[in-house]
Amino acid sequence: MKYTARGGALYLHEKMVMQIKGVFTGPERHIYSPDGQLLLQTAIRTSDAPQEKTGDVRFRQYLLLDAEGEEVACARPEYAEDEDPSVFGWPVCRMPRVDHAQVSMSGSEYCLTMKNSQNYLLEKRFGEAVMKLLHRGLAGGWDVEADDDLRPAIICGIFVLCRYIEQENEFLVV
User: Which residues are paired to 118 by β-bridges?
Assistant: First the structure.
């Protein structure tokens, strides 16, 4: 299926099929059906990290929860291959780059990869593409190609997880 995402909504043939809304504070997002029913919500869970690893993204999980708060999917962000601080050390003037997350959803494992800041790919374990997100450039919005098996609410949830990965790479201002 081919969708378009723009302005916090997912469209199929110019008809809105899902809507993403933020909460007043924090990174959480709620995903609603066109009639306003809450279907999914996202959250970031941080595990207790040792003092020397408090900024390490490997102690975070991005969660997709249903309306009752039950876990639907869990993504674990990871550093780019050439940026792993346990191998290369911590950069002096920036945080190490995060470019993918391992996603557990419906008993299956996936890899969500940020190809660049405008393109994302969700793949099954053996490289089979399940979903592609492509930024539309100056026109704005995103083109979304997804397997027919992925429900629109899950597509919106994966989109939010992509944005979480992107935020990990934003320049911190102190």
Answer: none
Cα distance between residue 72 and residue 41, in whole Å: 10
Find residue 132's DSSP bridge partners. Answer: 121, 145
Token couple for 48: 């207790």
Verdict on whether the full-model pTM lies above 0.85 = yes
b/e burial code for range 110-132 (CB count within 10 A of at least 16 → b): bbbbbeeeeebbbbeeeeeebbb
Return the pLDDT at 55.
Answer: 72
What pLDDT, on the 0 to 100 scale, is given for residue 49?
Answer: 62
Concatenating the DSSP letter of every residue in 105-143 gives: ETTEEEEEEEEETTEEEEEETTS-EEEEEEE-GGG-SEE
Q: How far apart are CA 11 and CA 161, in angstroms?
A: 18
Query: What is the reported pLDDT for 143?
Result: 96
Residues 6+ apart with CB under 8 A from 91: 83, 85
DSSP state of 52: G
What count of Cα atoms within 13 Å lies in the side-chain half-sphere of residue 172? 9
Dihedral sign, Cα of residue 151, residue 4, residue 160, residue 31: negative
pLDDT at 150 over 80: yes
Taking the CA atoms of residue 134, residue 163, residue 102 and residue 110 in that order, the dihedral angle to the nearest 10 degrees is -40
Strand partners of residue 38:
32
